[in-house]
Amino acid sequence: VGCDRSKNLVDICGEKHFQAFVCDALSVPIRSGSCDACISIAVIHHFSTPERRLATLRELARLLRPGGTALIYVWAMEQEYKNQKSKYLKEKNGCKNKDKEMNTGTTQRPLSELGPDNSSQDSAWSDQLLKDLKDESCGAKPVADFRLPVHTNRTSFHSQDLLVPWHLKGGTKKKEGSVDTVLVPGGSKESQELSPVFHRYYHVFCEGELEAVCRSLDCVRVQKSYYDQGNWCVVLEKL
Description:
Elements: E1 2-4, H1 7-15, E2 20-22, E3 35-41, H2 50-63, E4 64-75, E5 80-81, E6 84-85, H3 87-90, E7 102-103, E8 107-110, H4 120-136, E9 161-168, E10 181-183, E11 194-203, H5 209-215, E12 220-228, E13 231-238
Parallel strand pairs: 1-2, 3-4
Antiparallel strand pairs: 4-13, 5-6, 7-8, 8-9, 9-11, 10-11, 12-13
């Protein structure tokens, strides 16, 4: 049985005759102790506070029967480990971005080579958002600069908390003005069209961080922890 926050992804599972439902990882509508095994891949790094990340792990452990196991993957801060670059970094100059595409009814992909250092559009987007919030304060205490760095795709991470730009494949008509748009550089006609840009939050984990959070739960023990192609991974056993 699978679950996901995205209804469109769950619908795709249904079309393939898999059992799946929509829910939040912080509150999974399954009986406690009813699962032999659970898998959480690339989920927990999207939660924005230590408390929410811990709560997600506790909810995962709740689902397991005694002796049951869980496999957890999160994105690693260390994309170069033991002198080896991850697949994510190695594909910087290639055309294999398909591994990061997302399908939510319309295919999405990372906004390649755009970041705070070389994207005036991203900078303008963040500046405007900050200005809007300050305007809404009506002369009250100025809003703190809360902006997160925007990651440049296929490069090493310089911050644990960041935004990764994604854009819809293909263009959007200008009248659909409810989303931010950028002009994507490139030679093809498709890439020259205006595309909506979305910024996804990530907390990338440092070595030992995921394992330490798991060890703070008294209902599980860490069976194994390891590094796999730019991800930190843990196998838990329910006590």
